[in-house]
Amino acid sequence: KYLLGIFGTLAVVAAVAFTLDALGFIELPSPLSFKFSAGKDAPVNAEKREKVARKELPKNASFQELIALGETETFRGNFDDAIRAYQKSSELEPKSIIPYEKIAEVSFLKKDYATAYKNFEFASSQEPENASLKIKIVRSLLGQRKIVDAKLKLEQITPETQQTLYYRGLIAAFLNDQGAAQDFLTKSLTAGTDEITKTFAQKVLTI
Predict the structure, then answer these.
(1) CA dihedral 10, 15, 18, 19 (to 10 degrees)
(2) Phi and psi (nearest 5°) for 44?
(3) Are 34 and 49 in contact (CB under 8 A)?
(4) What is the pLDDT of residues 15-26, one digit of tens each?
(5) Is pLDDT above 60 for 163?
(6) What gap in Å lies between CA 100 and CA 61, rounded to an integer?
(7) Nearest to 183 by CA among 196, 201, 199, 195
(8) How far is 150 from 197, CA to CA, in rounded Å?
């Protein structure tokens, strides 16, 4: 049980690493800080910004152009510039969840998991049926080491999917619940077609 507990911890970390690899983003060493501009209900990060040279956003850029710019800057590792583009896009279409989800993803890359969580939650509140957002919320909770909260969130997601089963298995392993871990991870092998998820699940099962 002790060894399984240790591996469970490593598996959770591996799951987060898998998420970053799957997104194809570049990880930088220090956290970003930013604030939304779409209203009082939008989440806010009150940390101080680093003083860096800022690129001017293109004038009269459309919503889609700003989203595309944010994605380009994210790919280049210019996360602060990416966030500013997403913030500006949220001003043009304040009802869209896309800017909030994008900023949350950048925050996740910066290991600012609390901010990622707040913004994934905000986006999910606008699209409660979006299963992908719910999994991202779980990942950001795991990033904060809020294992029990992540477990409860997963239990609320229906129907079960390959990813929900996989993460429930990881958390069960972390909590040394061997029977539940084996059950969830075994089910995840046949619940979907994502081969990377299957590979991680199989690694846990063979320990």
Answers:
(1) -140
(2) -135, 140
(3) yes
(4) 444 433 443 322
(5) yes
(6) 18
(7) 201
(8) 18
Closest CA to 145 of 119, 115, 174: 174
Q: Is there a contact between 81 and 6 (Cβ–Cβ < 8 Å)? A: no
Q: Which long-range contacts (CB under 8 A, 24 or more apart) does 155-159 make?
A: 157/131
126 phi/psi in degrees, rounded to 5: -85, -25
Distance from C-alpha of 103 to C-alpha of 164, rounded to nearest angstrom: 23
Q: Give the pLDDT confidence of 77-99 residue by residue, as tens digits.
A: 988 899 899 999 999 999 999 99
Q: Return the amino acid letter for 144.
A: Q
pLDDT computed for residue 79 by the predictor? 87
| Strand, coil or helix: 94 | coil
- From the list 199, 170, 203, 174, the residue with the least C-alpha distance to 184 is 170
pTM, rounded to two decimals: 0.72
Say if residues 47 and 33 touch (Cβ distance below 8 Å): yes
